[in-house]
Amino acid sequence: MGMGRTIVTAMLLLAASSAWAATITDEQRIKNPDGSTAAVIVTCNSCGPNAKPGETCLTGAAEGFLNCERCGPCLMDSNFGFRAGHAYDLQFIGHLKDASGKPVNNQFVRVVEPNGWAFTTRTSQDGMFRIMVGATLDRAGNPAQNKDLGTLTIQPKSGKEGAVTFYVLPEQFKPCAPPKPKKKP
């Protein structure tokens, strides 16, 4: 009986660890073949400083939070002009699912860089997306470098304004500037 529990526990731990490994993190490194960091890719989430304990934070928000700080287009403003330097094409791959675990079909997905470049695609029936970004330096190699962004659980939205958004930033990126106070009339 004890051996059976051990095997079941080991199987559950293995299943949980493999599910966790496929879950996207808020910040991921884009590595060059030599191991150096070309950039980081950041996703905002829906949970801010007022999030309740145990609240599910959906990722990919165009405007949201990162570690309870503002995240979104304001990061592009704070880091304006940065260009991720890579001598090969980058292919970003991932999957989108809804809260019930079903693949999200036909959802817009966007990768945005602070130099003004943006790349957009849609998910396939199995929730998969691929975005190819060309080399930004003299090409050193022909095969694209794949970056698996994992699986995101999202609240599906329609139109490009509801796109799941990833931000490409420098390794030591600047946070969003504090919002300007509103002028009183």
Please tell me the total number of domains.
1
Number of strands: 11
Terminal Cα span:
74 Å
Mean pLDDT: 81
> What kind of sheet is the major sheet?
6 strands, mixed
Tertiary shape: globular
Q: Show unreliable segments.
A: 1-23
Q: Give me the Rg, rounded.
A: 19 Å
* Alpha plus pi helix count: 2
Quaternary organization: single chain
- Helix content class: 10-25%
Helix/strand-derived category reads alpha+beta
SSE run: HEEEEEHEEEEEE
Strand percentage: 25-35%
Task: Provide an overview of this structure.
With 185 residues, this protein is α+β, with helices and mostly antiparallel strands. The chain has one domain. The chain is built from 2 helices and 11 strands. It has helices at 2-21, 73-78; strands at residues 27-31, 37-45, 59-61, 64-66, 69-71, 90-97, 108-112, 118-122, 128-133, 145-153, 164-169. Strands 1, 2, 3, 7, 8 and 11 form a 6-stranded mixed beta sheet that branches. Strands 9-6-10 form a 3-stranded mixed beta sheet, with no helix packed on it. A two-stranded antiparallel sheet has the order 4-5. A hairpin with a 5-residue loop joins strand 1 (27-31) and strand 2 (37-45). It is globular. Residues 1-23 have low confidence and may be disordered.
